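User: Show me a protein chain along with its predicted structure.
Assistant: Here is one chain, sequence first, then structure tokens.
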Amino acid sequence: MKVLAAMSGGVDSAVAAARAVDAGHDVVGVHLALSAKPGTLRTGARGCCTVEDAHDARRVADILGIPFYVWDFAERFTEDVVADFVAEYAAGRTPNPCLKCNERIKFAALLDKATALGFDAVATGHYARLSLVDGRPELRRSADYGKDQSYVLASLRPDQLRHAMFPLGDSVKPDVRAEAERRGLAVADKPDSHDICFIPDGDTRSFLDRHLGERPGALVDDETGAVLGAHAGVHGFTVGQRHGLGLRVPAADGRPRYVLSLEPVNGNVRVGSAERLAVTEIVGSEPTWPSGVAPADGMRCVAQVRAHGGTAPGTASIVDGRLVVRLDEELRGVAPGQAIVLYRQDQKGDVVLASATIVSTG
């Protein structure tokens, strides 16, 4: 096949591109310029998509002997990922920008351009497994459970997955690094990026303050309605947060308080005990099914509400076009705006059944 390898400049995408070459595909490497003013140097694992990353990707392409290009997607990224991120926080929700980037940039904007240019597939360094079962795509967790990225790929449509390749799905990270070293790739020891790429200093609150300014409100006890403090904007909080609340009045029982809900209209941040964070029902809007087939009502599943962790078994149904999941066990810190992803567990590994955006809990 003619394959476009998305090369971020990191070790995972480098080895994914190398494996696509080894498989006999006609491979072209591309680095996405996602910032209008990219930084020149990385600092440890802070951020990605810098000028240095582009140079690292080009050097890998030279070693692999494949053509290499840099495509400017900065405007699209700003509109579809960064602006969405800011708007979601302003509305009192907690978005996942990596999921939006996969959905709107790598497997929408990039894939659309790739197919228009005659490419059959886009290969990335994501840790997930993908196969066709009876002509339908089946997205599964990777062999490296700790690095699994199926959660942030779960919102992709079947037509997008049919043009996707994840060459690292059956590998674990130490083996990928060892392979990069054997191939003589300088990125073999390059640190992973653990931060939101457009917030390289890791200070999300300051980033949002710059975009949204101060929006003063009150910290309110969820049980008594008492005002416990003040804040500069609901965008500085997320459900489940414990630290940095700025409470003036300690809890009567001396126990920690957590953010329970956000009310962007009146500016209230409601806080309470950890027990009040527990939910047993989650409702998600705009559900998608990677295979193209909606789960049957009452289907048993495992729900995941964060990229790493936050899982519980439950039963899923579709009610008025929304995904409703009733959990067997309580989950805590479930925030509107996050994704809920459903998995079916079988002998082949966890299969992604559905994804939706959390709108409410109970």
